[in-house]
Specification:
This protein is mainly α and 186 residues long. The protein has ten helices and no strands.
């Protein structure tokens, strides 16, 4: 009888955890949909942004993030950060994106890129609440570990919005792909 009660409790705990995860994914997908709508409002009023490959990249990467959000985890991002640590193609794409986002005419797109990063970070913190608390304890106790953790967070989130598994940057960045600016109907 005790074994059956324990099994039922474990099933119940797993059901609650699954429901919490589904609710969390829905909440953050909604935030990503809002970001995508904001991006599209920008290009409606700004013809320079409309013709930019940066908009096409941010729009399609946001859509991709919406679709793969249930699979996004700290562990996946750490693995991607390790895989792309010394990847030359990734470095070229990242540098070109940073150069474009630094241009004054793309300040609104730069804000959207930062918001995309913040949404993904918030999602990871909410998804891995216990892990985040443990990392904060290590940050507080060991100062060098704090810098390493912050660097890995930044690198992981950077990879999250630029790597081929999670973004469409390679398809839109003209110097890398050898294509012109993204054709947008006017």
């Amino acid at each position: 009888m005790l074994v059956i009660l324990i099994a039922l409790m474990l099933i119940g705990i797993e059901a609650v955890r699954y429901q919490r995860q589904a609710s969390l994914v829905a909440e953050y997908r909604y935030r990503l949909f809002q970001l995508r709508d904001k991006l599209r409002e920008i290009v409606v009023r700004d013809p320079v942004a409309r013709r930019s490959w940066v908009f096409a990249y941010l729009d399609s990467t946001t859509a991709k993030a919406i679709s793969i959000l249930p699979k996004v985890s700290v562990w996946r991002l750490l693995a991607l950060a390790c895989v792309y640590r010394d990847d030359e193609g990734y470095q070229i794409l990242s540098t070109n994106l940073e150069r474009e986002l630094a241009k004054p005419q793309f300040s609104d797109l730069r804000k959207c890129e930062k918001e995309l990063t913040a949404i993904l970070f918030d999602f990871l913190v909410a998804r891995h609440r216990t892990l985040h608390a443990s990392i904060e304890l290590v940050d507080w106790a060991i100062t060098p570990a704090q810098k390493a953790v912050d660097d890995m967070r930044r690198r992981s989130l950077d990879v999250a919005i630029k790597s081929p598994e999670m973004s469409t940057l390679a398809e839109h960045e003209p110097e890398f792909g050898g294509v012109g600016a993204c054709p947008v109907p006017v």
